[in-house]
Design a protein that fits this description.
about 325 residues; mainly alpha; 14 helices; about 65% helix
């Protein structure tokens, strides 16, 4: 297993190096940004991961959607908007924006901590012999980040102000493989900040972090697909399926927050349904209900159709004006 991971990593690094030296490095020098070569190399990795993901979506998940759709896609304009969200996030535009805004603040904060004598803690080193096992280390961090992701997702539904932003994600009534990144940008900033903070605190390596984010993103795209698919009685309890996650998006099934102190709902798991089982939020019914938010149906609430209208209405909801 470790050999397979190493081979895949070496192949990825080779392509990353070629792309960086042929395109990114000359561009940075031409723009007078030679001091950002290290960051440009990292950005190349994120871009390459996004390209691979989009190719897999088009080549594999797209045909599956056409083969076994849950419902016909009647509103293609909203799907095109979701595609824009996907391109912004997967090809690195969102991360570049964070790099020039929040990343310097994070770097300064962690620099202060290191100067004060608080070194990096490596969680995987608590596992005996893990220093010789890349696969074991990766799995440890994957499970830890998924546990964190479950509680972040619960928070997005439980806390009223956060739900006002996150509800945009649930307002898509034509879910497809492009719907995962349909989020308010402030919602994404909150989630990414928490994940970066956790990554720094538990000492995950940059390569492992990229791999975990890439795997998570690809799995979430499949979960949101317009695909009538479940993983069987055992598989449903091992990995989140399109059926499992669609129920979380279903109108009235319970993804809307019930109150300030209640995270009512089902199937908050990001990758692993284990946390839903453990904390009593799992629902394994084989059903494919309409998706959306209850107030879209009961109150005709407008969540916007285009990218900018959705972002603007999200800000208005946040301050109680929409």
């Amino acid at each position: 297993m470790d050999g397979l991971i190493a081979s895949a990593g070496n192949g990825f690094s080779l392509v990353q190096q070629v792309l960086f030296e042929a395109v990114v490095q000359p561009a940075l020098f031409a723009l007078g940004m030679g001091n950002l070569l290290e960051d440009g190399y990292e950005a190349t990795a994120w871009f390459l991961v996004g390209v691979i993901q989009i190719i897999l979506l088009l080549a594999v998940v797209g045909p599956l959607q056409r083969w076994r759709p849950v419902e016909p896609v009647l509103d293609r304009a909203t799907v095109r908007t979701d595609m824009l969200y996907t391109l912004i996030h997967r090809l690195g535009v969102f991360r570049i924006a964070l790099f020039f805004t929040l990343d310097p603040l994070f770097d300064e904060c962690f620099g202060v901590l290191r100067t004060a004598g608080y070194g990096t803690f490596h969680l995987d080193q608590l596992w005996p012999g893990v220093t010789d096992g890349a696969a074991t280390s990766f799995l440890i961090y994957l499970v830890v980040f998924d546990f964190l992701g479950y509680w972040i997702h619960r928070g997005q539904h439980q806390w009223g102000y956060w739900w006002r932003l996150h509800s945009l994600h649930h307002a898509q009534r034509q879910m497809t493989m492009w719907s995962d990144n349909r989020n308010h940008l402030l919602d994404d900033i909150l989630v990414d900040s928490l994940l970066v903070l956790a990554a720094q605190l538990i000492g995950i390596g940059p390569g492992q972090f990229v791999a975990i984010v890439a795997l998570t993103q690809l799995s979430e795209s499949i979960q949101h697909a317009n695909l009538r698919l479940w993983f069987g009685r055992v598989g449903e309890r091992l990995w989140v399926s399109p059926r499992f996650h669609r129920l979380h998006h279903s109108i009235g099934v319970g993804h809307e927050p019930a109150g300030a102190n209640t995270a009512r709902g089902h199937n908050f798991g990001v990758l692993l349904p284990w946390w839903d089982v453990l904390f009593g939020t799992a629902n394994f019914e084989q059903r494919y209900d309409p998706t959306g938010v209850r107030d879209q149906v009961e109150q005709s609430r407008d969540y916007g159709r285009g990218f900018w209208s959705q972002q603007w209405l999200g800000l208005k909801r946040l301050v109680g004006k929409a």
